[in-house]
Automatic annotation (TrEMBL):
Its cofactor is Mg(2+). The keyword Metal-binding applies. This is Octaprenyl diphosphate synthase. One of its GO terms (molecular function) is metal ion binding. Gene3D superfamilies: Farnesyl Diphosphate Synthase. It comes from the Bacteria. InterPro entries: Isoprenoid_synthase_dom_sf, Polyprenyl_synt, Polyprenyl_synt_CS.
Amino acid sequence: MNQGPLPLSDPGLEQVLLDGLAEIESRLDVAVSRTRVLGDAPSRHLLSAGGKRMRPALALLTAQLGTGTSEEVLEAAVGVELTHLASLYHDDVMDSATTRRGAPSAHQVWGNSVAILAGDLLFARASQTVAGLGATAVKIQAETFERLCVGQLQETIGPQDGEDPVEHHLEVLAGKTGSLIAAAAHFGALFGGLTGERLRAVVAYGERVGVAFQLADDVLDLASSAEVLGKIPGTDLREGVPTMPVLLLRRAGSDADDSGIDDEGRAILAALDGDLHSDEALAAVVARLAAHPVMEQAREMARGSSRDAVAALDVIESSPAKDALREFADLVVERLA
């Protein structure tokens, strides 16, 4: 498994997280194996493909703001990651994605029905895991699951008449990505003993980091190579999935007097609305969009959300764990350099 970069300058804290992540990985393996034979291979498909385990790492890290890693923190982190994995199965079916983490998506291997049911199995495992942590944890899990579903519905249905597509997209990101990262931060802080204003600050941090992370991904989908992405750059453009650079360009082009957009922007929009089935056509529009000023606007939105996340921690006293959370927020957007 690729643990991902741990932005920790404190060696002792780094070891605490590495030990915790190793234990969580072992528990995840057990959790996805407790199915009938027919469900075992599909349900462990994405787990075997690896991942950074960002959400469990965040739960472990926020717990260090208080009393540290405990059995409850470990189990909550497992529940959050199972929920994340489950959502990926459903996302890939809805987006008709062919790959995930460099491997064929589950529905490409077993078909849509099996992929959806594998996701449902993992949601069930997540619920069972969290159920052992008490009513408050169950409520957090249920509210997060609701936000995940609402976020997906918002993305699927699209903005309503008169709604700003850019603001709508930010709401989608908060629901689909921010809510689960916030839940991870919430669980770690809660079972680390934080309460009141300090607990609310950590939850706000998690959601804003999540939005920053996804805004950065919107940019990287256009600015990174296929080797880095694990898919063809601009795949979201081809599939019609809204991303912030395109939404900013369309908003500029929607001004009544057409003064908000340049000639290159108009040409890019015309290309986006054309045929992008060939890899050559897609690569050409990706290159043009990647060079347009809207990319820097989207980068700055990601940086702004990261700064907001750090600002939310002002009420938390100084500690190596708080420093690491600041570094984590910075790392999310450093990918854009």
